[in-house]
């Protein structure tokens, strides 16, 4: 099993718990601002290794949430 498959499996489990709530998940303003700041630093070539790792974790979390939302949406339209 790959990491992507594992993310998908867990996202499906979470989506099944409360699909109506999962589809409404949204990042907090603070999180959005931090991601935007890190992306700007990366574009400008001023990002540190620690900040790069943090940005990658945020992007992995975003992918996971997107998977859960897609699976929840699919459950709701059945």
What layout of secondary structure does this protein have?
Blueprint lengths: L2 H15 L1 H4 L6 H16 L4 H29 L1
Helix pairs in contact: 1-4, 3-4
Can you describe what's shown?
It is a single chain. The protein has helices at 3-17, 19-22, 29-44, 49-77. The chain is mainly alpha-helical and 78 residues long. 9% of the residues are buried. The longest helix has 29 residues, at 49-77. The protein is 82% helix and 0% strand. The protein has one domain (3-77).
Counting helices, strands and paired strands, the structural category is mainly alpha
Shape: elongated
Average pLDDT rating: 94
Rounded to the nearest angstrom, the radius of gyration is: 15 Å
Strand content: under 5%
Beta strand count: 0
Oligomer: single chain
Number of domains: 1
Quick take:
The chain is an all-alpha fold. 82% of the residues lie in helices and 0% in strands.
Descriptors for this entry?
elongated, 4 helices, about 80 residues, mainly alpha, about 80% helix
């Amino acid at each position: 099993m790959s990491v992507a498959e594992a993310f998908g499996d867990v996202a499906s489990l979470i989506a099944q718990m409360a699909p109506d709530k999962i589809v409404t998940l949204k990042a907090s303003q603070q999180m959005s601002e931090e991601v935007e700041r890190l992306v700007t630093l990366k574009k400008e070539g001023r990002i540190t290794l620690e900040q790069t790792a943090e940005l990658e974790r945020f992007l992995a979390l975003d992918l996971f949430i997107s998977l859960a939302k897609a699976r929840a949406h699919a459950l709701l339209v059945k």
